[in-house]
Design goal:
The protein folds into 3 domains: 252 residues, Immunoglobulin-like; 198 residues, C8orf32 fold (Roll); 211 residues, Jelly Rolls. 16% of the residues lie in helices and 35% in strands. It has an 8-stranded mixed beta sheet with strand order 5-4-8-2-1-10-13-12, with no helix packed on it. An 8-stranded mixed beta sheet has the order 26-27-25-24-31-34-33-32. A 5-stranded antiparallel beta sheet has the order 21-20-19-22-23. The chain starts with 28 loop residues before the first strand and ends with a strand.
């Protein structure tokens, strides 16, 4: 049998993206949706995948009009997945060599008459990184119309084909959810292929097919579901833990290889294709270091590594040298998105040493740098592949994150302890063993080149899996203490703020203070500075101090800022608008009613804000806000306004999350706390 060589595998197919958070509720619903996937052919180079959809929709609101007035093909079957990547890679859902066979749409009158809807089509060529640090071309067709109105019942039918070989990586790990973010009354999915073609279907959360049959030399799976709730994007939900889905892997017979020293033939394990694609550049670097190759460029790299390792002559396990180098890269190095290299403008080699010498992390060298560093230090490493816990978990067929997301380098010290490194992809970076919450407790697959690249040896099939460590509420703490000097004569407020960050609050939020870099994968509230509540705030000083670059990564921010329009006077009455002064991370307008999915908090934590208002004259508090004290299974919220003395008023807000998951039936607890925080964030401090 033919063995496909990893180095010549075809271009990847797709990266799936989706908005991180949605609070959309729509009255529009799908009456009936029929999907069919036909896999035609038996060998990789001759397989064509045909996708047909027929969907009938009742448009009941403006959101429905907007949603179905523009349809982009191909549509994703997995709206929950998003990739962790630098923006320059431009990942989105797209396939290569898409051929649209048909697209039609009609309005259905009450009498059943079909009236054509005119959709205008426009082709878009998408350029994005392919998975091997080079850009490739992908296809999208946008269909738009202005002829849909509230109250319409419409039917849309389309069909397109794509070749398997060009979209290889997509269809050897293809996840399909049945649910959407609007209700579906009737749903069917059919998957058909030739009986001699092997398609492995992994079924999750009750996604067993209703029937499997062979007819006219075609093998068909059929799924039929009714009354699917539009819950797939419920905020804080993890659809993959509760909703039915399948992951299919198309495995043509030419993916067999002959097991060395035997008469057996086996499929190349799916993970090996993905790992080989991602790690191809690693191998050249690894071999150069292992063979002691010396070039002018590598000489610069060696000198840099030696400048750190020489400081630790008694570094028995290699940790001190590794930590010193990684800390320097995290703190001092700048990031280059490598646009010229990714898009084929600059085709020169990696030049690891030259850029290390300049203090620059290139996008294409993010991981190769650490391959070189670990091997030069005499250490070994694994690549640590994992998935954002909010969107999935690596499984028997689900390997999409191995190609379509960042991974970690797990360095093996000489005493065999693992140290995790997440290479920086912006001017901000994480320290050694610093992992964002969305990778905490994730299942990680550890892979080394010996698993799949050794000649005359069977490819390793048994997965080496570990769980990434997690943090607790006593480690994830944010404290904001602010002295507000209020000059009643000038109607001005002067702020002196101190912010203490530890654990995930440091990991997720310090980038905005330290490097003015926002984390694009989290709730936008994390990316708000303490003083961002008003656009006219003037910042006089801002000082960031990294107190400790080891867990829990304690950091401090001291700042002075002022506002001239935050206080109003009406006769003897004063008002200070405190809208959005408390950056507790919540989802606004959260609703527990009809909730389908369990709610997952980002992480256990304690978050407190205390404002001390010091007035230039005696005042009397007149605010009528009641103190808030909520404590339930999900967490704690306390809010209070207290006059300490004639010239001092204290306003405090404390939010604690002590449960990472709450059953859907109990999410009224979450709603109660979120609603109370929203109310506090609308507060006006009143006094005379």
């Amino acid at each position: 049998m033919k063995r496909i060589q990893f180095s010549i595998l075809v271009v990847l197919a797709v990266c799936l993206t989706t908005p991180l958070f949605s609070t959309s509720l729509s009255e529009t619903f799908i009456l009936k949706e029929e999907n069919r996937i036909d896999v035609v052919g038996k060998k990789s180079n001759f397989i064509t995948i045909s996708i047909t959809k027929k969907v009938r929709i009742k448009i009941n609101d403006l959101k429905g009009v907007e949603r179905f007035s523009k349809i982009s093909l191909p549509e994703t079957f997995d709206p929950t997945y998003f990739a962790h990547f630098s923006k320059i890679r431009n990942y989105q859902y797209a396939l290569s060599e898409v051929k649209i066979l048909s697209f039609s749409a009609n309005k259905i009158t009450k009498s059943g008459v079909k009236l054509p809807i005119n959709y205008k089509d426009k082709y878009r060529a998408i350029v994005m990184e392919r998975g091997d640090d080079q850009a490739g071309g992908y296809d999208l067709w946008d269909y738009t119309t202005t002829e849909i109105n509230i109250g319409d019942e419409i039917e849309i039918v389309y069909s397109y084909t794509v070749p398997f070989d060009i979209n290889f990586y997509n269809f050897i790990s293809f996840r399909i959810f049945f649910h959407k973010n609007i209700d579906i009354k009737e749903y069917t999915l059919e998957l058909a292929h030739h009986p001699s073609l092997n398609i492995n279907v992994e079924e999750k959360n009750g996604a067993s097919p209703d029937s499997i049959y062979e007819l006219e030399n075609q093998y068909t799976y059929r799924w039929s579901r009714k009354n699917l709730k539009g819950c797939i994007d419920e905020v804080g939900g993890r659809a993959y833990t509760q909703l039915p889905f399948i992951v299919m892997a198309i495995l043509p017979i030419d993916l067999y290889y002959k097991v060395p020293d035997s008469f057996k033939e086996k499929y190349i394990p799916t993970y090996a294709f993905f790992a080989s694609r991602r790690e191809n550049a690693h191998m050249t670097t690894k071999m150069s270091i292992d063979q002691g190759l010396r070039t002018a460029d590598l000489g610069k790299l060696y000198s840099y590594i030696d400048s750190h390792s020489s400081k630790f002559p008694d570094d028995e396990n290699g940790y001190q040298s590794l930590k010193s180098i990684h800390t320097d890269i995290t703190d001092r190095f700048t990031y280059d998105n490598d646009k010229e290299s990714l898009f084929g403008i600059d085709n020169r080699k990696d030049r690891l040493g030259a850029f290390i010498d300049q203090g620059v992390v290139r996008e294409i060298n993010r991981y190769s740098n650490y391959v070189a560093i670990t091997r030069k230090l005499g250490l070994h490493y694994f690549t640590s592949y994992l998935c954002d816990v909010r969107t999935g978990e690596l499984s028997g067929n689900f390997y999409t994150p191995m190609l379509h997301s960042d991974y970690l380098i797990a360095v093996v010290l000489k005493d065999y302890h693992l140290q995790y490194i997440y290479p920086k992809n912006s001017n901000f970076g994480y320290y050694i063993n610093e992992i964002p919450f969305y990778f905490e407790n994730a299942k990680s697959r550890l892979i080394q080149p010996l698993d799949y690249l050794v000649v005359n040896r069977q490819i390793e099939e048994e997965a080496k899996e570990v769980r990434i460590f997690s943090s607790t509420e006593n480690e994830n703490i944010r404290r904001a203490n602010v002295l507000v000097k209020v000059d009643l004569d000038k109607s001005s407020l002067a702020f002196q703020a101190k912010i203490d960050l530890t654990g995930q609050f440091s990991t997720i939020t310090r980038g905005i203070y330290q490097k003015n870099v926002k984390n694009q994968y989290v709730n936008k509230i994390y990316n708000e500075k303490l003083w961002s509540f008003d656009k006219d705030i003037e910042v006089q000083s801002e000082k960031f101090v990294m107190k400790d670059n080891q867990f829990p990564f304690q950091a401090n921010i001291n700042a002075q800022y002022s506002g001239a329009h935050l206080m109003k006077k009406d006769g003897d009455d004063y008002t200070i608008n405190m809208k959005n002064w408390f950056n507790h991370v919540i989802y606004e307008n959260f609703q527990a009613k009809d909730r389908q999915l369990d709610f997952y908090a980002d992480f256990k934590s304690k978050d407190s804000y205390v404002y001390y208002f010091q007035f230039s004259k005696d005042v009397q508090l007149t605010s009528v806000e009641s103190n808030v004290n909520i404590e339930n299974e999900y967490g704690i919220y306390n809010f209070s306004v207290t006059q300490i003395n004639p010239t001092t008023i204290k306003v405090s807000s404390f939010y604690e999350v002590n449960s990472t998951s709450i059953a859907a039936s109990k999410t009224k607890m979450v709603e109660d706390i979120f609603t109370a925080i929203e109310k506090s964030n609308l507060m006006e401090l009143r006094f005379q």
